[in-house]
Amino acid sequence: MVKMWTARRWMWNRLATLKFAGAKVVDIPVPGGDEAVVRGVPLSTRFPRIGINEILVADRIPTDEHDLRAQRFYSVMERLFRIFGPNAPGLPSVDADRGAALDRAYTEAHRALFPAPEFPDEFRDPDLGLLATTSPYAHYVTATGPDTYEWDLRSLAEYDVHPGLVRLGVHVSFVQDGDRLRAVEIDSALGTVTPEDADWDRSVGLALCAATTHTSLVRHYNWVHLVPGAAFSIATRSALPAAHPLKRLLWPHVFRTQFSNWVTTVGQLSAGGDFEEIFSFTRESLLRLFNDTCRDFDAIVVDPQRDAEKRGIVGRGLDVPVLDNSLAHHDVMRAHAERYLRAYYPDDAALAADVDVQRWYAELDRLIPGGAGVLGDARTVESASRLIGSLIHLVAYQHEAYGTLLWNYQLWTQVEPIRVRTDGAPEPVDVYQRMVNADFGLNIRRSPMMQDFSYLALDGRGRAAFRAFLSDLLALQTRMEAEPQALYKVYPEMLEANMNG
Ligand SMILES: [Fe+2]
What we know:
It holds the Pfam family Lipoxygenase. The chain is of the alpha+beta class.
């Protein structure tokens, strides 16, 4: 069994490194290459073997996004999953020393392309209270009373897991101690435990496993790529002509979404794909999770400020560095949207009278489950700026924060297991190797946010606004470099213009 897996491992490592080495940063062209309408259709009509009916995806890949080589590569990969996939049954557990495990799984060929992950300071003596506000999972913390908080991931208990794994539904209770949180109780399939209990550390691991699983599957893939990200892109493609100023503002943040969502859906949600082979859920449960979390989607998560207010964590003297980091980027993106819109619309009436803008908003509102209204509308410049700033934040900042940023977290499975086994053993070597390659792939370079997009502008007004945005991002980068560095922080120079390869 091990010998057979060694051949599979060699081949899939080779594919991962070839893909990384061969990836080219895509230059974003001026819009107009394919002006035909793109419609939203149920995912299962585009991918008949993936039973997800609730989520709408584009009915076609526009010709200006086509990358036939990549599309063929993914079609072959989908077949390979079934006949020579990267996983094999009955393999031993990964080395208890994850440094050694990583040395083995992250080969010289990988390292020649991208440095190995770093170990977060907050993982040295893992304290769930600190991680609740100071890790990529900080977006779960919600107030329940004047000085009490929770992580509520109980809904994950409804989804079946692979044999031999612990179910993922977890509830963590926190109390506020000065400007920090202290975890006081964890309720899960492992029982209800407090920090004095022998099972506390294992329950902390299960809580982090639930958080990282939800972040990768729901927050990143469903709630950035598939649900609001695709709606943003389809509406922008279909409702705005190429020479419209709003199309030019949004274009760098939506171009290639249809192509990219097509290939990543094949790679991750196909039978034998990354999601079901890495994370805990069975295939049936995984597909149900995607359907359910599309139906339950609340667009407020796209606006980090309103989302934090709704979670009740603002203005309570709590140290929230991840939220501060997110809002610093959101401010710059909203200011950019507002500056740009004011350059083209002297007042709210002018914006409200633009039929293309109104059609764009109506399409976005129709495509987002539950509507876009909670994010803003297109009746006033201020409201539209808030909406657009949040959409840019979604595809650039949130895509990074819930995706690539996990590189330095997800592979330290002694702290944050990727699966929790009932027998207490670590995950098998093939699951760990697959996680390494999947996360390695997230680091493939995409078109950077910090570039001069003024070539997309229709005239001097747009050019000035694009340049002012770049200069604001540079100023934020400089400001952040003067502050203490941390792995949980996203920096403007890490941002990509959009979520697409
Ligand atoms: Fe992504």
